[in-house]
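Risk register update: the risk of archive-format incompatibility is retired. Evidence:
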Amino acid sequence: MTPYRCRLMATAAAILLGVSIMGLGAGETTPDSSSSLIRDFLERPDGLRIDGQPLDSRALGRFYRPRDFTPAWDASAGGLERAAVLIRALATADTHGLDPARYHLDAIQARQSSGNGRLAAELDLLLTAAFLDYARDIRTGRLTPERRDPDWGIAVPSFDAVEALTHTIRRPTTFPALLASLPPPAKEYGRLVEALRRYRGIAARSGWPLVPPGAALRAGDDDARVVSIRARLAAEDERVAVSAATRFDVRLDAGVRRFQARHGLAGDGVVGE
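Archived output:
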């Protein structure tokens, strides 16, 4: 686990234990004063920025106005537990190819134990903004496919993160289930997540050895580059053993053909250019 993720997990633990995340323990913030501060933030004519990061005032307003700007992540109605669950999910966003830093985690961590009313209101807004961004990203993707390719034929699923959060907060125990339901359910998506984990593991273990350039090689050849070919294939194929042998034998031929099949190449067993 990376040091950054460890800090985030510690933040979640602090929230779960109720360590004054919203400043309520210091006696400086009440629900009414927090509501007023949240309203003031959202009604700024020049938009909302916290620590220099712009937040989506329109989406936040859709969430907070119907609830009269009441905090969503304080000690009432399971807010602290909900915040801890959210931060744990954000800390592992990288397993889905997302950048945890995108979800305001440093700003959240800086406010986790503050007794200041203003910072408590900012923290509530940051947590809500983080959920809305994360939920949209993981459910519908960071990019709109049509912007990259107008011929893209797969429709982006309809999803309203504000509505999902509003509905779930009315039933606090359902929040973990909501987070778990956000990733696409398709088995292909699960395979992508597993492939990302596997390839990151390979990269962490020094990556993929390079094969020096040269003439094409095939079964029966004897060449020093065969050692590099074995090492390259073994990085992804456990059936290929690293060896100092320079003979292109039948086992290596089978490994090359498996590599070609995985990558949509002609399965001729020839290591070409």
